[in-house]
Amino acid sequence: MKKSLLFVLFVLVGLFIVACQPRTVEVEVTRVVTETETVVEEVVKEVEVVKEVEVVKEVEVEVAGGARGIGDRLTLIYWQAPTNLNPYQSGGTKEIEASSVILEPLAKFSETGALVPALAAEIPTLENGGFSADLTTITWTLRDGIMWSDGTPFTADDVVFTYEYCIDPATGCGASNLFEAIDTITAVDDTTVEIIFKEARPYPYEAFVAHTAPILQRAQFQDCIGAAAAQCTEENFAPVGTGPYQVAEFLSNDSVLYVPNDFYRDPNKPYFSEVFMKGGGSAEDAARAVLETNEADYAWNTQVPPEVLSAMELAGNGKVLNSFGTCVERIMINWTDNSPELGDDRSLYLDGTNPHRFLQEPAIRQALSMAVDRGTLTTIGYGNLANPTCNVVPAPAAFVSTANNSCLTQDIAGANALLDEAGVLDSDGDGVREYNGIPLNILYQTSTNAVRQQYQALIKQWWAEIGVDTELRNIDASVFFGGDPSSPDTYAKFYADVEMYTNCASGQDLQGYLGSWVPSEIPGPDNSWGTSNVPRYVNDEYVALHTTLTQTGDPAERAEIVKQLNDFLVQDGAMIPLTHRGSVSASGNDILGVRINAWDSELWNIADWSRAEN
Q1: Spatial contact of 460 and 444, defined as CB atoms under 8 Å apart
Q2: Are 224 and 165 within 8 A, CB to CB?
């Protein structure tokens, strides 16, 4: 009885907290340069502050550890086990996280969203001359003496190769949109990379930035470009890297064992003698292993009902970490026909000749959104660790649209009226509406997870109230988010009418992220289903507006364009945003150096992690 009262109190408090949350082209080159200099100067100031903070953290780690590999085993629980360790061959968050321990980009985003150098010696800017005044050329200078984990030198040629690998359409690169603006890329010398863009690029920090776009070693992957990429199992399972750890053993969809990289640039790091990443199980199992039973040191993505997390934390073994970035739990709407009888053409765009049987009707897409009570979902699923949202872009604040806020109020009556007006009626009285004689029977899939199954159950009920019949399906997360092109159950194959998951942007500029929904990013067999336009969304106005974003330097204008792109995706029904999630994970109380990051990999600074001495 006490537990029930506590739960009711918790939900009421959560509702109060949610209710109190704020709901939140060309131009002349001279003006673009001036305005962009202002933006870059602000970024540089932020980067300098972050550098100072990182120096302090490094000193603290050296005091705690003091030498490479002297610590015991660090155990990470990633209940969504990685399929491979090459993020370009999946694009899934679990692959990005697992690979970030070994592969590195030129620059990362810190936990504040600021750019910080990784393999680069510094961030190229207008001020330091690394970014040209006409906004067409960026020059990256690499750190001296960086070595791959096999003992060979890391050079600018490896950066050039990574571009060549990812730009080949047959490679199926999950981050190809980040490289498309590049006209030429040249290794000027071993430590200098010059990138010339096809046109002025006000925001040049996409390619080779963040753990969505790390550097691959040419010597290892040179025979893995194009159609051969997916067959390079050995390379994809054990990439040679420059990060603090290297792969000792990898079991696909199960676990990874890492050991220190003997050639890592800091002789005092990393601290742990082994890092063991265990996959499988559930988010609740992962959280319990850290917070309650003390069997693990870190649990990623603890997507667990808030009252369960709070009870676990009372055991005193660990703490719940939360960081808000751009992560949104959303329902993706399939714009193509997913009928099984289509065989190999199932869920393929086919140049627009294969539209969905009834989700092509805008009124149906809108009604599905109107019927959802986002506040109830978010409170039950996350408590005060998330907020309901109507936007694909929920942050930073300057980019948040208010044009869609009506969705925060559930409107079953309005959804029914909209469908009636569109002629989508229940003609035979069985409780299910029809569109051109086709019943609104929806297959709704997601990964296996307690919170997601709660969302599914409630949404099924609400959709029934507007005459939509829903079949629920949940798939093991390792399979659903996997990169196996032969599997019919991956989110990219999208053999369902709608599907639900979370996605996030890296860093605080949304240009690359919003480039995920252009036609060239539609998944299919020609790119091994590795690209990012999962709903198969095509809108020429959206493409034109995104092109304008890539050519606009004024910060205020960029913010307005981002809002408009967001509104296209929401109002056109490419997806139904539900919840602005924090990145919620759990860490043992004795683990030092963790700085949870919603803008990049959560393991972005694992080289700095250590264990407190008893």
Answers
A1: yes
A2: yes
Report pTM. 0.75
In whole numbers, what is the pLDDT of the chain averaged over residues? 89
Within 10 A of 434 (CB to CB), how many other CB atoms are there? 18
Assigned token pair, 463: 């959709």
Spatial separation of the C-alpha atoms in residues 246 and 229, rounded to whole Å: 21
Of residues 202, 123, 178, the one with CA closest to residue 505: 178
What are the pLDDT digits (tens) for 471-482?
A: 999 999 889 998
Q: For the chain, how are helix, strand and coil distributed in percent, rounded to 5? A: 35, 20, 45
Task: List helix spans (H) across 148-269.
Answer: 156-167, 218-221, 233-237
Residues forming beta bridges with residue 245, ordered by sequence position: 260
Sign of CA dihedral 524, 580, 302, 276: positive
- 141 pLDDT more than 50: yes
Structure tokens given for 353? 């000749």
SS3 (DSSP) at 171: helix
- Give the whole-angstrom CA distance, residue 382 versus residue 390: 17
Asked whether the beta carbons of 86 and 235 are under 8 A apart, the reply is: yes
Q: What pLDDT digit, counting tens, does each position of 323-335 carry?
A: 999 999 999 999 9
Instruction: Using CB atoms within 10 Å of the CB of residue 515, give its burial: 0 to 12 exposed, 13 to 18 middle, 19+ buried.
Output: buried
Q: Which amino acid is at 148?
A: W
Distances (CA, A) of 232 to 222, 227, 237: 10, 10, 8
Angle of CA points 457, 463, 467, to nearest 5°: 140
Backbone angles phi, psi at 298, to 5 degrees: -150, 135
Task: State which amino acid sits at residue 209.
Answer: V
User: What are the Cα distances from residue 439, in Å, to 12, 359, 366?
Assistant: 38, 11, 17
Buried b (16+ CB within 10 A) or exposed e, 388-416: bbbbbbbbbeebbbeebeebeebbbebbb
Among 121, 98, 104, 112, which Cα is nearest to 54's?
112
Which pLDDT belongs to residue 67? 85
Edge-to-edge strand list for the sheet holding 192-197: 137-141, 192-197, 182-189
**Considering Cα of 48, then 53, then 59, then 65, what sign does the dihedral take?**
negative
- Judge whether residue 18 has pLDDT over 50: no
Contacts of range 144-147, beta carbons closer than 8 Å, 24 or more positions apart: 144/191, 145/265, 146/119, 146/242, 146/265, 147/242, 147/263, 147/265
The radius of gyration of the chain's CA atoms, rounded to the nearest angstrom, is 24
Which domains occur in the chain, in start order? 29-322+585-611 (3.40.190.10), 325-508+570-582 (3.10.105.10)
Q: Per the omega criterion (within 30 degrees of 0), is the bond before 270 cis?
A: yes
Structure confidence by residue, pLDDT tens digits, 246-272: 999 999 999 999 999 999 999 999 999
**pLDDT for res 66:** 61
The pair of three-digit structure tokens given for residue 526, joined into one six-digit string = 């020609």
Residues 246, 230: Cα–Cα separation, whole Å: 21
